[in-house]
Prior knowledge:
This protein is α+β, with helices and mostly antiparallel strands and about 230 residues long. It has helices spanning about 55-65, 75-80, 85, 90, 100-115, 220, and strands at about 25, 30, 35-40, 75, 100, 120, 125-130, 130, 135-140, 155, 160-165, 185-190, 195, 195-200, 210-215, 225-230. It has one domain: Immunoglobulin-like.
Amino acid sequence: MEKQDRIVNSQTINRRLYAPPGRKNWGPGLLLVPLVTLAGCSGGPTSLPIPSFDPGDSAEQAMEIYDTDGDGFVAGEELENAAGLRATLRSLDTDGDGKVSEAEVAERVRAWDKMQIGMMNFDALFLMDGKPLAEAKVTFDPEEFLGGVVQAGLGETDMGGGLRPRVPKENRPTPDSPPGMQAGIYKVRVSKIVDGEETIPAKYNTETIFGQEVSKDNWEINNRRVIFKLKSK
């Protein structure tokens, strides 16, 4: 895995977040837009119910999937193979030991419950070799341990490499639900087919290293600095 791909902090993975506060452009011709709004007429929390999580069950399943050595923690190589958990380590790792425990996962799920937010909107920027990645299809796949109560978000990047992922209408909580995504932890997969061939390296789709937490208190979204930086080689 290439450490340069994405930088989160000194302990976590491959996430590069930039565009300092007050800067109006991500790059030449690429306008910075607000990265988080909460769906609804007022721009605040919607009246939609949040997903019906079972914190204990979700945490237990997370350990079953990712704690391969059975020591009670997802750490080291295990964390490298857990894109969603790794991307959410800042929120999950409450004791600062660089590991994820069952209790920490359960506590994070409970935090989403307390926020009482049904759907959220945010924009993401995708770059390939430092340039906007246009016309790429992006899927935000919820982590398996969330028990199927969170729906995937989909989107296609525009010419500036930006998109706003949304749950398809047919999968939203109600037929008249506003667009957006549900709180949760996601694996982010990027695909661009040209002449019948996939042009995006497997480490960004079938074997993705990208993850994202969608949450009202997520520091990336609130600080308007979400960038997915891909490399062609």
